[in-house]
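Input sequence (238 aa), recorded before submission:
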Amino acid sequence: MPYIRYTVTTYKSALIHAAIFDMDGLLVDSEPHWRAAERDVFGSVGLMLTDDECKQTTGLPILDVVNYWYARLPWSVQDASGRSNQQLADAITESVHERVASLAEPMPGAVDAVTFFFERGIPTAIASASPMSLIEVVVDRIGIRPLLTLWHSATLEARNKPAPDVYLGTARKLGVEPADCVAFEDSGSGLISAHSAGMRAVAVPAEFEREDPKFDIATYKIPSLTSFNETVFNLLNT
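Predicted structure, token format:
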């Protein structure tokens, strides 16, 4: 995906006053469930994708994923209901809700990372491209509801990731300046969003794209949330 630049107001700051986490693939191991749902729904209109092909759109809002594949491989097989791209996106999301609610597990180090900020009295939030209904499912599934100050969905903003809207909106809801926040992201799209919002950004890429240069804009990069600790926090908090 090409680098997309967004211009926002930036601020000078030293201390971290809030921590904001992406959700899918970072806090919860939901990406395999997204890919399985995509393959099922796309298969219903004659588009047979592999798991690796689905990884190409990791981090994109689901309607953007549907539009991405339709632009490249427009399906000619219409299912009986003649669903629109939005309806196909909704079908994928509904399937993911069901899978995540019963099968998804937290990513390694996720609960500990959220707890780290909670124990220090630092407001902690989720800023996700997924709808609020799925965020609610996840915070209960992995047991972090009591640790979070709030959660916010990019579907409630004018633009989804990679635009900075959801991070700016989350900072506004927390009552802090964007530059006083540290954001954690596992996807290139999400990293652009946090970086463009003027936040310190920690990239936590999946192994298959860990060396991709799109993550070079991060303030800091770690292989897993299990690597986040007091030392990393102090490096970011200067």
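Checked by second reader. The chain has a mean pLDDT of 91.
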